[in-house]
Design a protein that fits this description.
The complex is a heterodimer of chains A (about 775) and B (about 160). Helices cover about 25% and strands about 25% of the residues of chain A. Chain A has 18 helices and 34 strands. In chain A, about 60% of the residues are buried. Chain B has two domains: about 80 residues, Beta-grasp domain (Ubiquitin-like (UB roll)), CATH 3.10.20.30; about 70 residues, [2Fe-2S]-binding domain (DNA polymerase, domain 1, Orthogonal Bundle). Chain B has about 160 residues and is α+β, with helices and mostly antiparallel strands. Chain B is globular, with a radius of gyration of 16 Å. Chain B has a five-stranded mixed beta sheet with strand order 2-1-5-3-4, sandwiched between helices. Classes of the chains: A alpha+beta (about 775), B alpha+beta (about 160). Chains A and B meet through α1 and α16 of A and α2, α3, α4 and α5 of B.
């Protein structure tokens, strides 16, 4: 028998194979359990929140006495009960607004009642007296000295050491990047493009609305069932906000019906817990209506982005000056860190030697900005990649060649001073251009239509604290199967499948023999920071592989001892321990729990096998507060490119995306089909934000809080084909070289479509969404139509 | 709220249920019969997650009152498979990789089943039209459309 090559040299089965999803059967049969499907019996109470109708106002008085008397009402709570401040990076909010409300939908009280109808009725009986204040509805104005302060107490809030608020203003974080000599560099430029873009707020629109059910027992133990991307972060935030031990909070998180960031951090869960504290022993369900989703769930922050970019006569980028004003809304659960990510990635995936970039997180009286798929990158790239295209045309260079010339390459000293790791970005660009048949113009389908092609590229790093960690355990069962404990969430991306593949590959058992211990439950599951930032395949993957290898080592040590052999001569293949030396073989069955008998009935050796593993990046450094410079800003950047072909209708302005191409460097595709699924779905979500989506806010009030008025892409809108491809330039610390790709596919879609529209009609559409109306008016103004 | 006793056939079984006059079919299925496969995405007939077959026709069950279903036949996602045998459309969704978070899938499957029942040879356009009221935020729809096409072929075979 020949010894197999080590894991790094050759991929063990089923790594790199498109095995079927582990959760598919449950999900097509209606058996998959989501939070609202859990049965709580007749003791269940229903909670509803009383919310502010004003974008900015002082709370003068709250009178709940009438609501409390309504039959069926079991509890009414207000901010008076929960004065503590909470926040992921900057503690700037309370569970209920106490002194003032800061957005339309800010909760001021909540009711628990025996039915949703009674709870709803009780809300009408709560009297709140407000004194209306002037609001802030634009981030550029919000950052100016004239703007009224949304948080006069900003100087008193607790904040982590990498976020820099400016007390006395509405700026909750100012990230600065300074490199080279920008002013001198402008003089060297042969072409300069200067543009401003306004990227509107968009909504995540998971098809499953936010929901949480909380129960508090007589000892004060809190149990929370929630549709959550962040069970452990929620436990942490609730523990801190309420002064309860982490050990007395159990968050149980079943399947998530779409999150895209909106179910990360703490939102509706805090309300459910606050109410449940007052009705001990009774579970309390808090479920957002679709209208509430649009009014009060996290939104993707709006962005006003000003770019000035210049290159020399050969097309080499020389300088960039950006100001990013993020419309963070009333509180900044994640906004401050989106601002930071926007700052330390603000050049896009380009090498630019001279920089002066400022990224401001600005309080406004808009809905609360949360994390959304891409974490600032779709908003940043929307304008940046149009500027790059324009600059290429300006100096009469092909935009693809321009990008190949300037894109980041291994070893480049990128914007923060970090050396770029190996990346396949150039290959991605070439593949995308080739697949869309770049440079070849195809005739339109009708005389009143124009066709065009566009390409855009991107980068994105996981945006997270430097020490965000993962852990896992692998327990072997009597029949030789394995159960994997993990704390990362299945939100549709396929992580349970990929993790099961990793266990199978690292341990040496068939994929079919791996099960996931679910639902994720903070009492039983191992710690995971959050299911965000496209970090699970890489970070949780490393922990899972470590746990599987730990279990494997325990098995091999046991068998080696029993056989009198060296563990290095043993392997586990397809659920059997084999010796390359003695050619002995034994099934994992039974021995992984009961151990092995010593010869001559002289007792036993071994015991139940449980492997453990963890992972935490240890090498990310701080960045200088004044220059944004530091040795290692991020763990890694995933890069990629998209290309599209569009057709614009001159009579209506309608933009039809005919086909799309997506190519990303995933390091290693653990499951190629699932990787492609992310690219296809992400493309359509990006296309939807490019063409249709904008949460229309008028004086802070959402004007289109329904699926009828806030349109997302349907089957009628999608291109005939989204060709998904990948390249694999391995990540040095990823499992088998893998890095994340969950968010990235929607990052370059807006500018790719914008650049294609320009190619079709000769005018740049500017800020999204590129609605028929907008495109028609743009063409009218340019004299293309009359 | 006045209560009404209705008799309704759900997934082949006769159920006698007491429902308040304002209860929707969706809530009756989920809360009275514990058939939670049918999902509540918007409660206003806009997302399609709650689609069920009512006397063979796909409807948004959040837009139908339970009392209207007295004497009716209802099929939910739980009723698509029989004797642990998946309906071809369910198998096709698995094979095509058409499932991600899974929340829209019950409604998608029911709308697809209804389409194939009335049109065994749907064109791409027919499928897109039949599913236009079923919103999905994860998949980008392509694999869902492919799954319906694939199921149609499987159900027609052999010889057609």
């Amino acid at each position: 028998m020949e010894k197999q090559k080590t894991l790094s040299e050759e991929l063990p089965r089923p790594i790199g194979q498109s095995v079927p999803r582990i959760d598919a059967l449950e999900k097509v049969s209606g058996m998959a359990t989501f939070a609202d499907d859990i049965q709580f019996g007749p003791g269940l109470l229903f909670a509803r929140a009383k919310r502010s109708p004003h974008p900015h106002a002082i709370i003068k008085k709250i009178d709940v006495s009438k609501a409390e008397k309504l039959p069926g009402v079991r509890a009414v709570v207000t901010g008076a009960d929960y004065p503590g401040l909470t926040g992921l990076y900057l503690a700037d909010r309370r569970i209920f607004a106490t002194d003032r409300v800061r957005y339309v939908g800010d909760p001021v009280a909540a009711v628990a009642a025996t039915s949703e109808e009674i709870a709803e009725k009780a809300l009408e009986l709560i009297d709140v007296e407000y004194e209306i204040l002037p609001g802030v509805f634009d981030p550029v104005y919000g950052a100016s000295p004239e703007a009224p302060l949304v948080h006069p107490d900003l100087d008193k809030y607790a904040v982590v050491n990498f976020i820099f608020p400016e007390p006395g203003t509405n700026i909750s974080n100012h990230f600065k990047l300074r490199k080279g000599d920008v002013d001198a560099a402008w003089k060297e430029c042969a072409a300069i493009v200067e543009r401003t873009y306004r990227v509107p707020h968009v909504q995540h629109v998971p098809i499953e609305p936010h929901i949480a059910i909380a129960k508090v027992d007589e000892k004060g133990k809190i149990t929370l069932w929630s549709s959550s991307q962040s069970p452990f972060a929620q436990r942490n935030l609730i523990a801190k906000a309420l002064g309860v031990s982490h050990a007395d909070i159990e968050v149980i998180a079943p399947y998530v019906g779409g999150g895209f960031g909106s179910k990360a951090g703490l939102s509706v869960e805090a309300l459910a817990v606050a109410v449940a504290m007052k009705v001990r022993g009774r579970p309390v369900k808090m479920r957002l209506t679709r209208e509430e989703e649009f009014f009060t769930a996290f939104v993707r922050q709006g962005l006003v982005a000003k770019f000035k970019i210049g290159c020399d006569k050969n097309g080499k980028l020389l300088a960039m000056e950006n100001q990013l004003y993020w419309d963070a809304g009333a509180y900044t659960e994640y906004g401050v860190n989106v601002t930071r990510a926007g700052g330390y990635s603000s050049t896009g995936p380009y090498y630019v030697p001279n920089l002066r970039n400022d990224s401001y997180c600005v309080y406004t009286n808009h809905p609360v900005g949360g994390p959304m798929r891409g974490f600032g990158m779709p908003e940043l790239h929307a304008g940046l990649e149009q500027c790059i295209d324009e600059l290429a045309h300006e100096i009469k260079m092909d935009p693809v060649q321009f990008r190949l010339l300037n894109c980041v390459k291994e070893g480049d000293e990128i914007l923060t001073g970090m050396r770029m790791h190996p990346t396949g970005l150039s290959q991605c660009i070439e593949k995308a251009a080739q697949a869309i048949e770049w440079g070849k113009k195809s005739p339109p389908s009708a005389p009143n239509k124009r066709r065009g092609k566009g390409l855009a590229i991107m980068w994105k790093a996981p945006a997270m604290p430097p020490n965000a960690g993962s852990s896992a355990w692998v327990e072997l069962n009597e029949d030789g199967t394995a159960t994997l404990g993990l704390g990362g969430q299945e939100i549709g991306q396929g992580t349970f499948t990929v993790m099961a593949q990793m266990v199978a590959g690292a341990l040496g058992i068939p994929y079919e023999n791996v099960r996931i211990a679910k639902p994720v439950d903070t009492d039983y599951s191992p710690y995971e920071w959050q299911t965000v930032a496209s970090r699970l395949t890489w970070s949780m993957g490393n922990a899972v592989v470590a746990a599987a290898r730990d279990a494997r080592k325990q098995v091999l040590d046991l068998v080696a001892e029993a056989w009198g052999e060296n563990p290095e001569d043993l392997d586990i293949i397809n659920g059997h321990v084999v010796s390359y030396k003695s050619e002995e073989t034994i099934s994992l069955k039974d021995i992984v729990v009961y151990g092995l008998p010593k010869p001559g009935d002289q007792g036993w050796r071994g015991g139940p096998i449980v492997g453990r593993g963890n992972f935490m990046p240890t090498y990310v450094t701080g960045l200088d507060a004044e220059t944004g410079q530091g040795p290692r800003a991020v763990v890694h950047y995933t890069t990629g490119a998209q290309a599209v072909e569009v057709e614009v209708d001159l009579d209506t302005g309608r933009v039809e995306v005919l086909r799309g191409v997506a190519v990303f460097d995933v390091g290693r595709a653990i499951n190629p089909d699932l990787v492609k699924c992310q690219m296809e779905g992400g493309f359509v979500q990006g296309m939807s934000t490019a063409l249709f989506e904008s949460l229309k806010l008028k004086e802070g009030i959402p004007q289109n809080p329904s699926f009828v008025d806030y349109r997302i892409a349907t089957t009628a809108d999608i291109p005939t084909e989204v060709k998904a491809m990948y390249v694999e330039v391995p990540q040095d610390d990823g499992p088998w070289g893998a890095r994340g790709v969950g968010e990235h596919p929607m990052v370059p879609t807006i500018p790719a479509i914008a650049n294609a529209i320009y190619d079709a009609i000769g005018v740049r559409p500017g800020s999204p969404p590129f609605s028929s109306e907008k495109i028609y008016l743009t063409m009218l103004e340019a004299g293309i139509v009359g | 709220m006045s209560m009404h006793r209705i008799t309704v056939n759900v997934n082949g079984a006769t159920e006698v249920v007491d429902v308040p006059a304002n209860m929707t079919l969706l809530l009756m299925l989920r809360e009275k019969l514990a058939l939670t496969g049918t999902k509540n995405g918007c409660a206003s007939g806009e997302c399609g997650a709650c689609t069920v077959l009512l006397n063979g026709e796909p409807v948004n069950s959040c837009m139908v009152l339970a009392v209207e279903c007295d004497g009716a036949e209802v099929v939910t996602v739980e009723g698509l498979s029989s004797d642990h045998q998946l309906d071809p459309i369910q198998q096709a969704f698995i094979d095509a990789g058409a499932v991600q978070c899974g929340f829209c899938i019950p409604g998608m499957l029911i709308s697809s089943r209804a389409l194939l029942d009335r049109n065994p040879k749907p064109s791409e356009y027919d499928i897109r039209e039949a599913l236009v009221g079923n919103l999905c935020r994860c998949t980008g729809y392509r694999r869902i459309i492919d799954a319906v096409q694939k199921s149609a072929q499987m159900e027609r075979a052999p010889g057609d």
